[in-house]
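Section handout 9: paired folding examples.
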Amino acid sequence: MQTDARPAPVSFRQALRFWFKLGCISFGGPAGQIAIMHRELVQERRWISERRFLHALNYCMLLPGPEAQQLATYLGWLMHRTWGGVAAGALFVLPSLLLLLGLSWGYMAFGDVPWMAAVLWGIKPAVAALVLQAVHRIGSRTLKTPRTAPLLWAIALVSFVAVAQLELPFPAVVLGAALMGAVAQRWLPGQFAGGGSHGAASGSTTATQPAAWIDDHTPTPEHARFTPARLARVLAAGAALWLLPMAALVAVWGWDGTLTHMAWFFTKAALLTFGGAYAVLPYVYQGAVEHFGWLSAAQMMDGLALGETTPGPLIMVVSFVGFVGGWGQAVLGPQALFWGAALAATVVTWFTFLPSFIFVLAGGPLIESTHGKLQFTAPLTAITAAVVGVIASLAVFFVLHIARPGGASGAVDFAALGLALAAAWALLRLKWGVVPVIGVCAAAGLARHFLLGA
């Protein structure tokens, strides 16, 4: 049999077809998306070996931004140079962007229709449960136990208080955690030592797995080797791709224009997404809801629900924020609400994901010089611990919002609280997927509307 023979080289066209397919089926959050890539690329197609896959994954998990999209970018770059990485990363996002544009238009055009409001009533408790699940998932992976990592637990608790009670800005919390990690790792290195693996993909690979196209011992491709000139070219191209659109926005709308503010705000947000999309949501909430007023808190929750039901990274919820903000601000005038909102969503998506491409294409060749060194990973581990506390504060906010939708003086919605509890049970205990939980909660909202007239 020839099943163990090394696969033939993969053409760019073959890779494009796969990356587009991945962008259309990548449900389940980063864990599910990474699992799909591992099954397809390592186990079935054997385009890359287990160790090379994990090597890339470990690097991407250290970066701010959506790790699954960055992993696709990295693997595309490793196989087919820069354009391979750009195509892989873009196709991972494009189907989700197009779908969200349609859903966002439907939300803004028909969101006040009673049956749509009933669906959203059912989905909001599911969103609160999903945030609670994120606290559990990231916390169990990062914080270990209070006995083995008390410092990380302390960082998480302080971060929770800083955001929920003191209302400190998210960047300040991240910076404080990073400084704590950088200092503390000198005296308490055991607090920051990596523990665990990336799922089932962490076992032995060399003795049992058949050869892959890019195998454990395949020499590093020439384009993946570090040179100062190549790094300079990538950084220059990245700077131009940021500066030119920003200059165009300033020239047309001015520095105080809505689109200019969105571009600058989501550039900063892209640099703070350590720990996944849920980590940056408090920052997006502070800016988009409380500071700029692009959308309301209820719309933010609805957008998160829409983001959970579409393929692609959850951080695509920022496209919904841009769409609603562009619609509400009428950036192209009241006669072109859709096109203005679509432009705002595109601007937000561009400035959110551009840093991820630069991180991968510039940092890929340097991976061996940084991965696994405690002085590099300890600040990031501390940031992730802080993220647990920040997400917990977001969970509290969402639960309070669904419990008293009319504000602190309003009546308690016990039905919504019960639905949130049931959704959390399904996620954490029954291990249901995201889409089934949201579907059942949406159906519960419709049933409540038609049976009780609520």
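Moving on to protein 2 of 2.
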Amino acid sequence: MVIELNNVRFTYGCHPVLDGVSLQVTAGEIVGITGPNGAGKTTLLHLIVGLVRPQSGELKLFGVPAGVFKERHQIGFVGQRASHFNRSYPATVYEVVLSGRTALRGFFRFFNREDRICVEEALGRVGMLVYRNVPVGELSGGQQQRVMIARALALRPRLLVMDEPTNGVDNAGIKDLSRLIGGLRDEGITILVVSHEPGWLTGLTSKWVCLDRKICSCNSRVFPREAGWTECLPARSEKIGLGCADSPVGG
């Protein structure tokens, strides 16, 4: 089992974000996650990649409790705002992707030939190798997103976690991403994707998960809206956490 969550809860201040979430993801699966804004989707991914910890419940990665899991380089992560670079950001495409290898090498250590091979391989897979010496701030949003996907792939991860990876990507880029995901699946890489749009993942997902603080529905290859699971799909309109001190609510 790659990911195991059992009755996981998480709050920001007194705002409940995840309430008793249980989920299992096996090796080689592509799992799509959807749900309304504020449903806890991004927080769930942050728990899995180790940016935050569950406040109760159990989370295991590759069969190891998350609190003692040391092989974080086995997990590649592409965050929701991955492509938001300032135009003056002083790094090339190659340098940004190479920086992803620090999860394996650690800081203050020299990169070696293997690192460079992994970077060029990852850039080639996303069609960005010809841009290797271009400042990343000069790229379009879709190109920057490809660079960040390459940064995650440069680790040669066993698990790839992606939060709305099609944001800022044009139709041609989305088709390329779909083909890339299919190729990674064929290599046995496990993939977890948050997305509101099912089209680009058609025929790829092994199951969809509908999340609204709790798991509403799970284990269908059909996108929740097409399966009739409408109870947790509309965007939130209600005020959450009235009377609480201000704190972020994960999406």
